[in-house]
Amino acid sequence: MNAAPVFAALGDETRLQIVARLCKHGPLSISRLTDGTSISRQGITKHLDALAGAGLVRSKREGRERIWNIETKRLAEARRYLDHVSAQWDAAIDRLRAFVEDD
Predict the structure, then answer these.
(1) Does the CA dihedral 74-28-58-19 come out positive or negative?
(2) Can you tell me the distance from the alpha carbon of 7 to that of 67, in angstroms, rounded to the nearest whole number?
(3) Which of 43, 50, 56, 64 has the fewest CB within 10 Å, making it most exposed?
(4) At what angle do helices 13-25 and 41-53 cross, to 10 degrees?
(5) Domains of the chain, first to last
(6) What is the dihedral sign for C-alpha 29, 30, 33, 36?
């Protein structure tokens, strides 16, 4: 997995909030994603395009609107990557602890 685009996309607070809203509420239109924010529809669209480029969201047309949904497979891949990195850190800490305790 090339994780860099995923984490780059999620590194923006607004995009992270969009992902959280889609995870919590399910598929939403741009107007629903804009509700309660100070961001314009154009601003939300740019963020959604960045998320789509990273494979984190997808859209489909329903009438005159585009409905956006989370790509759970891509999020699961990112989670597995983080689990792998976490395991590496745990192993490094265990080695350091063993080294320090041996002295």
Answers:
(1) negative
(2) 23
(3) 64
(4) 80
(5) 4-102 (1.10.10.10)
(6) negative
Instruction: Indicate the pTM of the whole model.
Output: 0.80
pLDDT at 103: 64
What are 50-77's pLDDT values in tens digits?
999 999 999 999 999 999 999 999 989 8
- Whether the CB-CB separation of 49 and 59 falls below 8 Å is answered with no
Q: Give me 62's structure tokens.
A: 């329903």
Measured over the CA atoms of residue 42, residue 45, residue 47 and residue 49, the dihedral's sign is: negative
pLDDT at 1 over 80: no
Kind and range of the H or E element at 70? strand 65-70
Report the amino acid identity of residue 29: S
Q: How far is CA 102 from CA 45, 53, 93, 95, 97, in A?
A: 56, 49, 14, 11, 9
- Pair 47, 10: CB distance under 8 Å: no
